[in-house]
Amino acid sequence: MTAEAPPAATRPARPRGSPWGIAALLVFAAITWWAASEEFGIGFDVIQLATNLTRGSQIIGEFFPPNWEYLPRTYGPMLETFKMAVIASALGCGIALFISFLASRVTTPNPPTYLVSRSVLNVIRALPDLLYALIFVAAVGVGPLPGILALFFFNVGVVVKLLSETIDGVDTGPIEAARATGANRTQTVRWAVVPQVLPNYVAYSLYVFELNIRASAVIGIVGAGGIGNNINTERRFFNYDNLSVILIEIFLFVVVIELISIWLRRRLV
Amino acid sequence: MIRLENASVVYPGGVVALKNLSLEIHDGELMVIVGLSGAGKSTLIRAINGLVPLTDGDILIDDVSVREASPRALRELRSRIGMIFQTFNLVKRTTVLNNVLMGRLHSAGTLRSLVGMYRPEDVEIAMQALERVGIVEKAYVRAQNLSGGQQQRVGIARALAQQPKILLADEPVASLDPPTSHVVMRDLQRINRDLGITTIVNLHFLDLAKVYGERIIGLRAGELVYDGTAAQADENVFRDIYARSLTADDLMGEAASAAALPS
Hints:
The structure holds 2 protein chains of 2 kinds.
Chain A: H1 19-36, H2 46-62, H3 72-102, H4 111-126, H5 129-140, H6 144-168, H7 173-180, H8 185-219, H9 227-236, H10 240-268
Helix pairs in contact in A: 3-6, 3-8, 3-9, 4-6, 5-6, 6-8, 7-8, 8-9, 8-10, 9-10
Chain B: E1 2-10, E2 16-25, E3 30-34, H1 41-48, E4 56-61, E5 64-65, H2 71-79, E6 81-84, H3 96-101, H4 105-108, H5 110-115, H6 120-132, H7 148-161, E7 166-169, H8 178-195, E8 198-202, H9 206-212, E9 215-220, E10 223-229, H10 235-242
Parallel strand pairs in B: 3-8, 3-9, 6-7, 7-8
Antiparallel strand pairs in B: 1-2, 1-4, 4-5, 9-10
Helix pairs in contact in B: 6-7, 7-8
């Protein structure tokens, strides 16, 4: 006797894939071709890239061997870069923590505050750090101060964006529980929301600090202090062997920060 | 005393959750609310502490109107009403003690609570609340490392730390297994008897309701359809509340009657 299957409900037909997915892919492909093409775009050519690389290798060769005698002269500017990054990260992340609560739908005191803080943030984030540096060098002159200001605005933009979206996703149960105890808004945020997002906040802050070390190499080129000043000088005098010392130094610096941040995050989460 | 006067709640989408509910709940009572999901049990509980605003009528707690209360007065009112939840609503990443201290925020002052400098007497109250639910040894453990039953007892301790006059429990055992459910229900029963705290509990298991409720009210589609003692609430009454015949799913089972404290 064969076991009889129970009368099954009719199985649903497999839903058809949406034609929009393929259409979107085709549109992306078309735009990419347009951007790279000879007639309409910038004329991007892989073969040309390969042949020109050999020309580049001559310059790249000048990076070696690195001129280690130059190293002591980078200590001061590198330290300045470090100090700039520390100050800009501390101020930027500190202020971003408070703004994030205004810019999240979950914790904002009222919808207008939410809208205003979001729009201001979008404006702040619209400018890249290099442009901020140009503006502040023009405003307050050459040196580390315009660099710190540029990094500060950049940091506020990044951290508020990431953190406010993390706050949007927190478990709202504890918020309801805190409100039910008669806690006010500040207390509710402090004890029902902050513990939930703290590990993320620390991770974002370390990430921003790392970005600052790298960014100060670039913004220094326009006169905003730090190791970037040296990059600009050495580049202009074609001292590629000195330049490679700076590059190696920045590379090591960023790797060390990354290791520290991995270690910190593991302890926190 | 809690007095509901034609209390009504219509949600923004037009759903009528409570319809002209009039009811008196006396000090020290243990009242169980039963009804199908969507009958308005959670809405009723949340209307009492103002988490859900009334759209008509009023609720008076010791003659103070919940509906008319200013934000400050509402916080003051809530500080005297403890609440526990189906999903416990603990901050899982922080310690049990920090969760319970949430119940002291209303007396701590904003600045103090911002830096977490609770007064020694507030910490003492929190510790005593943990002792009452028998879980004080977990005070410095992260809430996420506790079992469901333990988490719910932390939830109860958080409510007790408010030193409340009223305790609201919204489906407190719906996420727990039957034996743990009885432990938690007995905790609530003991708190109600020993401390004289008015206790209002939503339950959907009818046998639990009959065992632990002194008074049972039934809601159907936002309306009061039963109000009486547990003894009077027989199968016919429940059938009327549920508007259908009862099934095994409506009962928790597990020899419920043997579990309660002797009255």
